[in-house]
Structures are given as structure tokens and as C-alpha cells.
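FAQ: What does the model actually see?

It sees only this:
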Amino acid sequence: MNQSTQVRQREWLDYYDRFDYFSMATVRDGCHPRIMEHQEPTEKAIVLVHGLCDSPYFMDAIGDYFFTTLGYNVYLPLLHCHGLKAPNGMEGVSLDEWKANVDFAIDRAAANANLVSIGGLSTGGTLSLCAAANNHKVNGNLYLFSAALDLTDGILGIEGDIKEILLRTFLTDLLDTNKPLIGEHPYRYTHIDLDGARELSKAIAETDALIRDFMLEKPFSKTIFAAHSESDTTANIMGIEDLQQVSIADKFTFFRIPKSVGVAHASLVLKDPIHASDANETHAPLQQANPMFQQMLDAIAAIE
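And it is asked to produce this:
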């Protein structure tokens, strides 16, 4: 194993020092925060943020590409109440803590590189847009993967916008079933807990406000790469279309996967399928890979 591989696979141990609600003992195997730093100084770094109820594992293949092929230092934070062996129904989960997790990663990236980009999957994309707009240390590009800037219509015909409003009310606590979050998936919880969904709805409210401000004042000036599937039944693609409308046209790349390809929400970032922990070769994967993963990476390279 060469030195760069050893660095690439390193668990981010001082992340636990900063956030003591995480530790090597409490985080599930494979769900740990990750850090990929080159031995020699590098000009660029990127923070990649996972989605709601999953873990940094989902961003690993994209992070590896940024590290190995594009020469970035890469930081994959673990969000508050995620990736735990005993998640306790995500009780106490906090948007403010998610922002603190992301800001810590940005600080570490900025300390070791001159140009800091950020990106994320789903909720991680929502948080990344907020950070790109508000944290001056993010002076590079913004990468959005199935970003949850808007929710799709849901149960009982509830429209996405109404669902976002309801999630921010006391009804979240009343409707939360607190079903067990640990199941056969090794890298995510079994379902989206309503406590976490409530915090996501708050983040979406912030990105909605940002987009309105860009529309009224001036366009969002950063270079944006947005990948989204037309088959996504979680994050409405209209959220990306709205952001595109308030961005600079020649600085916005939209990698739009046709509905005919059938790429699901979280599968968009997967190079390889994910199987259950106890699965054998006869078992179907829990989550399929994105058949257009390499084309997506090629599109990322084109804007570098």
C-alpha cells in the first residue's frame, strides 16, 4: 500500500476531539468522518457533506476522485446524530450542530489549501449552498448532488412546500414513530427520522431565502456544478432549476440524468452498489449504483 492510499483511507480522529458526541466507539463501522490529505502542499481542497440519515461513506467515491485525479485535499464530516451505533431516534438533532460540523471541516480545509470548494448529497447539498453563500472561507466551487433545495410531493398528496412548513411545527414530534433506525444497511439509517427532517426543513427555508435574495439583488456568483436525476422522488429537481435561474449562466453546469435511466435519489453518488452487511452474491443490492457515475465525474473535470 503506497503512502497516498494510507492517507486516503484515514479516519478523521481529531474530528472526535472537536465533537465529543462522536467517538471511535460510538460510530458505526464504515460511517466515520474521513480525511484525505496529500503529503505535499496542494492548492485546492473540498468539503463533501453526506445526506440525511446516511454517512460520509456515500461521498467516498466522489471524494476519492477529487483526491486522486484532481489533486484536492478532501474532508468528509459526519453530521450530528448520524452514523451512530445507538442513534436514539436522532433526539436532539440540530441544524446549528450540522453547520458547526461543516464549518469545522471548512476551517481545516482552509488551513491547508488556498482554494476551498464545498459540495454535498441531498441535505449535504442544502448545507453546502448555505456555507457557500455565507462562509467567506469557501472561495471555490459549489457541487450539488441530488441537493434537497425543494422536497417532492409526498404522502396523502401533500405538496412539497406544504410538507416543509408542516415539518417545522410541533406536528413533527407528534408524528414521529421512533422506529429503530439501525437495520440491514451498513452505511445509513433505515428511514428518515422526523427530527432530522424538521432540521432539514429549516435549512431549506434558509436556502429559499438565499435564492429570493439573489433574485432581487444580484446573481449567485460562484461556479456551480449540479447533478440531479429526473427520477428523484425525494428532492424536487425544481429546486435546482430555481437556483440556476439566479446564477450566472456560463458558471452553472447542470448534469441532468434523464428519467429513463432510473437513477434514485442517493444512488446518484454511488460508483458501486451497496449490499446488506450479511448479503451474499445471490442477494440484490440495497442500493444500485449510478450507471452514469463516470460521465458525471467527467463533467466535473470539465469545469476544473
